[in-house]
Amino acid sequence: MSHEMRTHMNAIVAFSFLMNRAGCSESEREDFCNQILTSCEQLIGLFDNFFDSALIDTTEISKADHKTHKLNKFLDKLLSEFRGVLQKEAHKDVVLVSETSFCEPIDIYIDSDRVFRVIRNLFQNALNNTKSGYIKIGYYFRDDQVTFYVLDSGNGYFKYKEFLNTDNLNESLNKYNDTVSAINLTLARKLIHILNGSIWIECNGLTNAGIYFSVPVKVSDSSDIKLNNYINSMIAI
């Protein structure tokens, strides 16, 4: 945790110094400013996940807050958010792909805030470990459960597997020095436990990762579920 904090703080200080030096061009200032904003965002995200994870361990957490949502629109909101992230120059070589398994939107009862948080954490990990290629986000419905997944063409499989299965996070961090990924997955696992769900990882190629999590849901009686004979895939650009 302290190493990651120092890294981002050092970046903020260094780029701030470079912005104020004589002869700094406008394009350089813009680039330095973007670097500072990125470091600030990552630092805030690190704090949020760390403190929320600690809060779950030390206080009584409220039960899942289920509300009605249209599942396809539920994912579209997240995909729109992620598209904005991928428009940054640093991620121009990464393509976002979405997959859905229903012809028409269905209404489900789900704790959207916590599910959103988990998917965001998994997306951030995929993005941090994928320099080029794709990140695929989708879901499928089976036996009163919705399974969401985030697949990527990066190199994080063995690291994610270690962080998800470890009982000693400090020991795992000595092996894989990636505090951000570790805290993201730790919080995701705790949130899914609150939702009475499960999370697991599968190898997607040699070192590519596929992380899945299932949560129980109730489908609205008004929803007419029509499963596709195939999964609809769409490149989200």
Number of helices: 7
The CATH architecture classification of the largest domain is: 2-Layer Sandwich
CATH topology of the largest domain: the name is Heat Shock Protein 90
Please give the radius of gyration in angstroms. 19 Å
Please estimate the helix content.
40-55%
For the termini, the CA-CA separation is 34 Å
Which shape, going by the Cα principal axes?
A: globular
Query: What is the domain tally?
Result: 2
Major sheet summary line: 6 strands, mixed
The amount of beta strand, in percent, is 25-35%
Strand segment count: 9
- Average pLDDT figure: 80
- Give the SSE string: HHEHEEHEEHHHEEEE
Q: What would you say this structure looks like, in words?
A:
It contains seven helices and nine strands, in the order ααβαββαββαααββββ. By secondary structure, it is α+β, with helices and mostly antiparallel strands. The chain has two domains: 2-58; 67-236, 2-Layer Sandwich (Heat Shock Protein 90). A hairpin with a 5-residue loop joins strand 6 (198-203) and strand 7. Helix 1 (2-20) runs antiparallel to helix 2 (26-58), helix 2 (26-58) packs across helix 7 (179-194) and helix 4 (112-128) runs antiparallel to helix 7 (179-194). The longest helix has 33 residues, at 26-58. The radius of gyration is 19 Å and the shape is globular. It starts with a helix and ends with a strand.
